[in-house]
Amino acid sequence: MASSQHVLLSPAELAYLHASLSLTPPIRPDGRSPTQFRPLVAETGILPGTNGSARICFADGTEAIVGVKAEVERTRTRHDFPSLDEGAEGDDDDLEDNQHDVVKGDNDWVEMTVEIPGYRDDDAGTVFLSAMLSEALLADGEFTKRLWINRRFHWKLYLDILLISPPLSYPLPLLSLTTHLALLATRLPRLKSEGDEDPLFDDDWAAAAYLYPRPAAKKGSKKTTSFATPTARPPVTLLVMAVGNNIIFDPSKEELAVADVALAVSVGESSNPSSSTAMDIETEETKGHHNLRILSVRTIDPPSRLTPPGIPNASNSAYGANAAGAKDTEKKKQQQEQARTAESEAVEGVWKAPRGGAKPLVLAALVQKVLEKGGVADEVLDALDGVDLN
Amino acid sequence: MASLKRSFESDPFAQNISSKVYVRSTKSGKVQKIVREVYLRQDIPCSSRLCNACLKIAPRDAANRPIPFVLSDKPAGTSVFTQGHYIVPDTNAFLSAMDLFEQSSAFYDVIVLQVVLEEVRARSLPLYNRLISLTKSEDKRFYVFFNEFRLETYVTREEGESVNDRNDRAVRKAVKWYNEHLSKTSKKAPAVVMLSNDRDNLRKAKEDDIPAYSLADYVKQLKDGEQLLDMIPEVEERDALIEKKPGQFLYPEYYTLSKMNTGVRNGLLHQGIFNVSPYNYLEGSIRVPAFPKALLILGRENINRAVDGDLVVVEVLPKDQWKEPSTQVIEEEAVTKNENPDTEEGSDLISEKERKALQEEAKRTLAKTTEGHALPTAKVVGIIKRNWRQYVGHIDQSSVSSSAAQGRKQDSVFVIPMDKKIPKIRLRTRQVAELLGKRILVTIDAWDRTSRHPTGHFVRSLGELETKAAETEALLLEYDVQYRPFPKTVLDCLPKEGHDWKVPASMDDPGWRDRADLRDLLICSIDPIGCQDIDDALHARPLPNGNFEVGVHIADVSHFVKPNNAMDTEASIRGTTVYLVDKRIDMLPMLLGTDLCSLKPYVERYAFSVIWEMNSNADIVGARFTKSVIKSREAFSYEQAQLRIDDASQQDELTNSIRTLLELSKKLKQKRLDAGALSLSSPEIKVHMESETSDPIDVKTKEHLPTMSLVEEFMLLANTSVAAKIYEAFPQTAILRRHAAPPKTNFDELANQLRVKKGLDLSVESSRALADSLDLCVDPKEPFFNTLIRIMATRCMMSAEYFCSGTQSYPEFRHYGLASEIYTHFTSPIRRYADLVAHRQLAAAIEYEPVHPAVRSRGRLEAVCKNINVRHRNAQLAGRASIAYYVGQALRGKATEEDGFVMKIFSNGFVVLVPRFGIESLIRLRDLAEPEPAATYDAETYTLTTTGSREVKVELFQKVRVKVTDQKDETTGKRGVKMELVSTY
């Protein structure tokens, strides 16, 4: 859908755009640097009835809101469960041991719906968007663990992702960032019961805990305290494209129309305690930077593939090619050959839709660029840090 | 981008809007975040007559008149607030001392804050209702101030603040605002004083300079406050328990609510109503769905502070701790007689004597653990809902120290409740001397883990022990009978004509619409002597085709009591008329019950008629239901009717129609018995009173006359016919009455006793089998034996109950005792609310009137059924208790020897029933002789053999000669019957 949306540009315009994006450094139509995001405005907590919500407006006028609702659900019992008697009757340490063992989630615990105005909810594009967003969330299995209450109950999370403006550009980054913010703002009622009892919650909303707990101290303090409990964050999915050897972030609709390759890269912040030693060293060096890791990568079929090609003057009858007065069949043959070359060979200044898959080297470069320290992902996450989450 | 959030800074109305956010957990386990917007206003008046500012803004009614202000402009003062004061109690002040606020000597001009009112409602509905009726009373001047909607008094919950703390803060803020507000009115404005029993709240109030007192401190400022002091429970200390050393806890801690819920849902714990055995205060039982028999709860520690009637959660004990139910009588008064209420703390949970009593139990069970008699036992692990009410009792004389009887210092005494199932209550009072020998009303406040007995406070005195007024009131209170006079709102619902009301003469009157004119029928009523509320009348006449037309005419109460008006609501709360020996507490006002509705002779009355066509074999050929107008020809008593039937010279039409009815009723009865209806028995007696002083002079068992069963049969028939009709019309919401078949295990004990002692078999497969085998339970030498067995069998049955047809499947509708597939109550609408509902449903079923929502809503009907089931039972118990009291009074000062039968036997006593008086009483071993004779009890043969100071052998079902005297029970203060064994036959 949105990615293959028809772009009303002529082959000549496409060719011009492609050419200017291929320059070093590339010149983007809106004058941004290759790694610069469109400016955005964000706020959270706009829907008081939800457990968490956020809204983001891009400067191009696209706007999305995300609401997160949580419900308590009974976990389906599995056969390998120790019987409840043991759990309830056993002494306390026993219970706690068990608890640590079984904290695990299930992908069914998250239900995501994406709504794009003007498109059916079973439209292939919408489904693909929602698949990408949930894939990023569920890929490492860490997220659903947060929804674990006890061995018998869990939270079921409903994420409603709504684009509320017309899809002026491919909405993936917008939706992802809004979801990211909404999840950061999501709070779940504080559990009062213990162990495997039927859950009982504190009726005070102010006491509700954040799904992604905040660090106890903010950036001001040193590693000893602020990094003692690494704060994980929900993933963000970034849209990256390559034109020639240039890597361009957050492409606009027009830029995407000339992309050689487009990738959706989901990155998360690693909170893996096993790599904590390595992390400590890293943090020494790159203080303030995020410990990023790739969660998923998806290629996106760029709309450029469906654009009509330009025809070189050589084979354009409106220009010289036909004027010579072609009468014999030989010339016709020659023409056909020329036409073939026009489709296979690039002619300077003539637009030709890209063909074939992305080159592995380009892909590697794209991913590398995303993960780069102090790169775009870092920048985006830092920027989102600044949003007031209350 | 403009923010979508409501910004409180920029919005000009922002200060009027606030929001509440909280988490709600529903019963089904859902957890929801709830956001409520609160719109704050400034036009909620303070309602003080001193305040002119509020008068201007106060809301006005439709005629543009301001609603009159409540709080007096000259409020009473106290020793501290001489300028006068208003009172603002907090929630726990109301919860713990509602009786205080109902006093007429003080507590006027009270501001009830909305937050307090809501909290009271959440904590206790009965107290809430009492508070509401206080706010309605004009002379008490209670004003409900909606502090949660007034801008100045609204508080938002702070982070980490508990709801209670937030509400307390709201109370303090309201008090502060009131003080500031009123100080603007005049220089000597009345003070606004907060009353609280929460130390924390009082301390914070003091910090904020808000006038606040504990209830006790406040009452001391009042004139004659001394007397009120007893009604105040002590100041609560939230962390009082923590300060105590753990070693001092006498009782195990309760589980957390979530732990209990989980356990109950998983079937590990069980929830049910806790019942105490009437013979042994240390033995309780609880019926839970998971076990066919009730679970036993033995001993103080296992009972763990549960009081009879509480909804508790229990845990089943391991099998090696299962026991038999006790065969011993253990009475609390006897065992704990010498405890000192002052110095109980730190003592062991189980006193020496209790331990001894329990040890004997253990010995007995150990001796035969191999047998399968043991019942599952359980321990109480938590209490879902206390069912504490006010209890009637009297102060245990022995618990009063000699100094206390004179001085006015506060003393701890024990109150022994009249109900033996309730543990004794520790009470702190200053008026021991006045209260000794009085019937008093007390409530339980708390039962801490550190306290052996529950603590309570004094409510009011009913009067001297053994005076008729005090004892009757005590009885009504104990059985929760609503005996206050009907309020004005109810009386306003009565017809304006009063006693002059007549059936309209003109047939065009709307009252005649769809009514059959049955005034020419020869209708008569047959009731007990002196009956004023005549519910039913009958007629019968031969038809040309040789069949009979038989009519049952029931007072048309639903014509006068319309659904959902004040009178209907009051009647539905009362549920039933309660008959005491010397008093009747009506469900409906006198005017209706004994006049306008009552089918009195010689006057025209509205009725609801059921008319059958029957053949001479009493088979029903057809039935119809109609509203009607009748004119009863005569109101007979059973005796008169019987005499008239027996007198062959009486050959008038009316007498002959009664004879026809009698003939038909005999056939109906036979059919019923053939179908397996049970004829059950309970000892029924009648107290004869001296007409002038209404002092009881004699006791007689009730005589049974054929005319009684005449009326009974036709009423049963009418009820059954109506039940079928309303069920047909309202399959989901018909109000019916069922009597469940008793579980077979209920009869185990009785069947075993009969087999062992008499070689008789009791078969309980069906009601028919039971009826037949009961017929065979005869002792040729002892005609009463059969009745005795019937009495005992009746006690094994379930009790019949009202229900709404949608809640049960059709086979469950069965009335076991009457062997009827479907049954309801239709024939006594003057004295039973269920009948009134049935009337309305029948009227709708025959399309006499449209269906009123109140008789169609299943939820409401279920609530009605639940209430009237309880009321019905209480009314029966109250009636019996009243008879028992009067029997005691009738026997006063007399000693007679009577025949009795042993109906229950324990290892240290036995229960004798004396049919002549319909009373049963316990004879303990120690009553037999002094010193107490040694005894051996054989549980296999139900034989108690005593040796030593007196040698007798007592067996179950044995006929004995006993001397019946009256005796004032020193401990319960009840005058009761005392029996002494004279000889065995």
Automatic annotation (TrEMBL), chain A:
Subcellular location: Cytoplasm; Nucleus, Nucleolus
Keywords for this protein: Cytoplasm, Exosome, Ribonucleoprotein, Ribosomal protein
UniProt keyword Ribonucleoprotein, yes or no: yes
GO BP: any one term: U5 snRNA 3'-end processing
GO molecular function per UniProt: mRNA 3'-UTR AU-rich region binding
Biased composition (Basic and acidic residues): 327-343
Coarse class of the protein's main subcellular location: cytoplasm
Biased composition range(s): Acidic residues: 86-96
SUPFAM superfamilies: Ribosomal protein S5 domain 2-like
GO cellular component: cytoplasmic exosome (RNase complex); nuclear exosome (RNase complex); nucleolus; ribosome
Low complexity: compositionally biased ranges: 313-326
Transmembrane segments: none
Keyword Ribosomal protein: yes
Ranges where the record places region Disordered: 77-101, 300-353
Family to which the UniProt record says this protein belongs: Belongs to the RNase PH family.
Protein name in UniProt: Ribosomal RNA-processing protein 42
Automatic annotation (TrEMBL), chain B:
Localization in the cell: Cytoplasm; Nucleus, Nucleolus
Domain of life: Eukaryota
Domain PIN: 85-203
Organism encoding this protein: Sordaria brevicollis
Protein name: Chromosome disjunction protein 3
GO biological process entries: CUT catabolic process; nuclear mRNA surveillance of mRNA 3'-end processing; rRNA catabolic process; rRNA processing
Cofactor(s), by name: Mg(2+)
Pfam short name (any one): RNB
Upper taxonomic lineage: Eukaryota, Fungi, Dikarya, Ascomycota, Pezizomycotina
Family: Belongs to the RNR ribonuclease family.
Annotated RNB domain residues: 515-848
